[in-house]
Write a structure and sequence with these properties.
The chain is an alpha+beta fold. The protein is built from one helix and 24 strands. Helix content is 18%, strand content 51%.
Length: 458
Amino acid sequence: MNQKKTTALLLGLTMSLTGTAFAAPTDQAQDIDSRIAALEQQQSNLEKEIKELRHQNSQLKNQTRSQKKQLSGLSKSVKSELDRVHISGFGRVSWDNDNIKGYTDRNDNRRFYLDLKGKFKVNDDWNFNFESETNPRYANYVMADGTLKSHNGHDDEDGVIQRVWAEGKTGVVNYDIGRRWRGLGFQNILLGNETDGAVISTAIPKSKLTANAFYLTPTDKGYDFSVYGAGVQGQVGHGLQISAAIAKLNIGKHESMGQNVYDTTKTFINNDEKPLSLYYGDVKGTANASGTYTVTETPSEYRNTAGSLGFVLSAMWNPMKNIFLIGDYARTNGQDYTVGEWGANGYTETKYDKHDCTALRLNYRWSNINDPGSFQLYARWYNYARNINNLVGIFGDKEWGALQPGSKGWILGFKYVPAKNIEWETFYEMATAQNTLYGHKNETYHRNFVRTMVDYHF
C-alpha cells in the first residue's frame, strides 16, 4: 500500500514538472519582451531627461559666465569710479607759548586743526580739487591793550570749503587754475599765501628744469592787487636744486594795495537843521548823540610796502649724506618811508628802509611718515625787513605767526615719527623782534617762542 502511494506521488510530481517545462518558453519570452520594452522606454525617457538636464546645465553655465562677466565689469566700474576720488589730509593738535608784543594776538595758534583735501579725476589729463580747513582755537589770547579774549562762535575757517582749483595738461603744458595756497621759492618768503589765479608750466628741453608763468591775486580781506611773472625750478647739478622767480605788481610804488577794513574812521553827518551835539558818556569812549545823524565808516588805505617789482633766489643743496642746506633771498623795490607817532615817550619816528628778506636752513635727515622711528633735526636763521602792513616780501608765508616782519633770529627744532602717519614737531625760536604797538614801533625786544604739534595724516 505504501509502495502504491509512493509510486502515485512520484508519478504526479513528474507530470507536474513536465507540464511546467512545456509551458515556460512561451510565457517567459513574453515577460522578457515586456520588461525589455519597459526598460527601453525608461532608457528613452532617461535620455530625454538627461538631454534636458544637459541643456539646462549649459544654460546655467552660460548664465554663470554672463553673471561673472557682469560682476567683473561692475567691479571694474566701481573700482574705476572709486579711483577717480582721492581724499587725504591731516589733523593737528598744536600748542604755542609766545611773548610777542604788538597787534598780533599772543598764543592765538593754540588750536586743533583739520586740513581736508579732495582730488577728483575728470579724465586722464585733468583733475579738480578742493581744500577745507577747520581751525578751532581753544585758548584765550591777549589783545594789544592787554585784554584777554576767548574764541567763541565760528568763522569762515570752520569746516567750509575755502579753495577749489583745476589741474591739467595739454601736450607738454601744465595748468594750475583757481583758488589755492601757492608759494615762490623753497621757503615761500617772497610769496606764500592763498591766491586766485593761474600758473602755467612746462619742462625745459634737455634739462631737469621746469619754467612757469603766473598771474596771482592774494585773497586776504581788503587787499586789491595782483602779481604776475615767471620762474624756473629744478635740478642743475649733483645734489643741487634751484627755484627762482621774478614778480611784477599791477600797481605802482605809490598806489594803494587796498583798504584796511580793520582800521576805519567814523564820520557823523547831521541830518537836522540844528547842530549835532556829541558827548562821550564813559571812559571807554561810547559816543552818544542828540538829533538825527548818519554814521559812515571809511577804511584807511594800505600803503604799498612791496613796490612794483620783486624777486626771489632759492637753492637746496645736498653736499653729503643726510645733510641739506636751504637758502632763500627775496627783495622788492618798495619805497623807503618814515612813520611818526606820539607815544608814552613823546614823538618818535620809525624808518622802513629795508626791503629784503633772508632765510637759511640746515637739515639733518628728513622725517618720513611711512617710516616709524625716522626723524629730522633742523636749525634756521632768518632776517626779515620791517613792514607797516605786517607783510613779508610781497605776501610771504609767516608760518602761523612764527616768522614776523621786522625780526631776525634763530629757530631750533626737530620732527619725529613715533608711528606710521603720525609726526611730532617741536621748535624753539629766539629772535630780536619789532614791537608793533602804536607809539612803540621804534622799539625792539627779545622774543621767545615755543611751538609743539602732532600731525595725524590720512
